[in-house]
């Protein structure tokens, strides 16, 4: 709803968020910044620093298109966990179809982010939402091969029940749980810690 109908939601003042977190500090370990794409906001490092200074852990969900900002977050210890969505195999045609990117520079940025994360000491996972229309067995294996040796790779089964930007996707029948499990078992050849949810 937030992406499709942002005007249906009011802005929450930062003071209200801070107050909410601090009042529940005994029950909340950290925050997760998700999207849209959080790394589009240049003040994200400063915000994460404020959160870290209050004693909270920080998780970031990202599409990996801003490796420069990611490097800043990692280098300065402003993020504790990164979940990077790999939308498809890392060739331009497949990635463009799955993610809607229009230029190869974006594709290279995603690759740079993957390398940055894999070469860092930060805790992370890569994940792919598996959509039958976009992800064959071969494409999932190409992704797993590209991230060989990664700490964790998660296959998420597509759900047509959730609202989608493209309404035609609501008519796509998702893979069975057995099929997703089979794909995760095959991907373990490249990423032993591969599972599905």
Helix content: 25-40%
Proportion of strand residues: 15-25%
Question: In the CATH hierarchy, what is the class of the largest domain?
Answer: Alpha Beta
Structural class: alpha/beta
Would you identify the regions where 5 or more consecutive residues have pLDDT less than 50? none
The oligomeric status of these chains comes to single chain
Assign the CATH topology of the largest domain: TIM Barrel
Strand order of the largest sheet: 1-2-3-4-5-6
Shape descriptor: globular
Mind telling me the C-alpha Rg?
A: 18 Å
Sheet with the most strands, sense and barrel status: 6 strands, parallel
Q: CATH-wise, what's the superfamily of the largest domain?
A: Aldolase class I
Level-2 CATH architecture of the largest domain: Alpha-Beta Barrel
* Count of extended strands: 6
The helix-strand sequence is HEHEHEHHEHEHE
Tell me the span between the first and last alpha carbons. Answer: 22 Å
Estimate the mean pLDDT confidence.
93
Number of domains: 2
> Helix count?
7
Explain what the structure shows.
This protein is α/β, with parallel strands linked by helices and 197 residues long. It folds into two domains: 13-85, 3-Layer(aba) Sandwich (Rossmann fold), CATH 3.40.50; 86-197, TIM Barrel (Alpha-Beta Barrel). 37% of the residues lie in helices and 16% in strands. It has seven helices and six strands; from the N terminus they run αβαβαβααβαβαβ. It has helices at 14-23, 44-53, 67-75, 92-99, 104-118, 137-146, 177-187, and strands at 30-33, 57-62, 81-85, 123-130, 153-157, 194-196. Strands 1-2-3-4-5-6 form a six-stranded parallel beta sheet, with helices on one face. Strand 4 (123-130), helix 6 (137-146) and strand 5 form a beta-alpha-beta unit. The longest helix has 15 residues, at 104-118. The radius of gyration is 18 Å and the shape is globular.
